[in-house]
Amino acid sequence: MKSFKPGPRGFDARSSRHGIAGLAFAALTSLALLSGCGGGTSQIEPFAPTRIISFGDESSLITSDGKKYTINGLSATTSTLDCSLNPLWVQTLATHFGLVFRECNPNQIATPTGLMYAMAGGKVADMKNKLDGHFAVSTFGPKDMVTVMVGANDILELYAAYPAQNKASLLDEVRARGRLLADQVNRIANANGRVVLSTVLDQGQTPFALKERASKGDIDRAAFLTELTREFNLEMRVTILNDGRKIGLVLADESLETVVKYPSSFGFSNVVDAACLTTVAIENCTTATLIADSSATGWLWASDTLMSPGGQSQLANIALRRATNNPF
């Protein structure tokens, strides 16, 4: 399976404002392990978490009835929902380490080892509230793998306030939210948890952004969404702890940039449209409710802002590399 390949940048996020255009595919492969927090040195003792705890938004969410905000898979024999198919990136991480979420436990394991704190519409403030709730009853340890991917809904919320609010004020606010996220990640690290932290996908590359660019001529709306994303990620990256051990950084934004530039190299035939029918809520989208000629794996996007299983798989691959190579 081909994978997202993170860019070659180190942890100095202030030097990463520009894209990685022009890098050869082979170079991306050889440098893939160097782009995380702390430089991505090898693990002396393999990381073997005993629990996975997921914070974030729809991109990490499995609902209590096993639905996901992507293209849900259907059983080949019963045509009913099978939550083990088309896994989210956090499910792939869990499976690799022999862990399972209660929300998708097809083998009926008696004591699931995953906690699902991700939520639909989740923003950074929601993640803080969820973390506060966790600390009220528990803590973290060195065998806890904590996944964090949140901020897309913050960016979209702030973008919706334009032009009633000017760009400068919105950029200031998105930076503040990036710092707030970093503060929460640092709380987990300071409690001795091990964090697999993903940057926010570039919201300027989504089908939503492309439609906004085409329909509104006041400014380049897609470029503004990219700017909001970049500033959020930048402030988050320069604020998180950089001890190289407790936080593994997944550069999803830079990886998405590469996939969009070279889609066929990653097995994608469409990186600009959404595969799911717009008449179906995204959590109810399945392989039976796609637009004609689309594909759950060949199209990057399930909805205007959320990834398909193919996109989730690419994210899972770089997150797995980070979890298995970061010196946790």
Which key terms come to mind for this protein?
single chain, 328 residues, alpha/beta, Rossmann fold, two-stranded parallel ribbon, disordered N terminus
Description:
The chain is α/β, with parallel strands linked by helices. The chain has a single domain (42-323), classed as Rossmann fold (3-Layer(aba) Sandwich), CATH 3.40.50.1110. Helices cover 36% and strands 10% of the residues. A 5-stranded parallel β-sheet has the order 2-1-3-4-5, with helices on both faces. Strand 1, helix 2 (89-96) and strand 2 form a beta-alpha-beta unit. It starts with 24 loop residues before the first helix and ends with a helix.
Measured between the Cα atoms of the first and last residue, the distance is 26 Å
Fraction in helix: 25-40%
Structural class: alpha/beta
Determine the mean pLDDT. Answer: 90
Order of helices and strands: HEHEHEHHEHHEHEEH
Name of the CATH first level: Alpha Beta
Tally of helical runs? 9
Whole-angstrom Rg: 19 Å
Strand count: 7
C-alpha geometry: globular
CATH superfamily: SGNH hydrolase
- Using the coordinates shown, work out and report the CATH topology: Rossmann fold
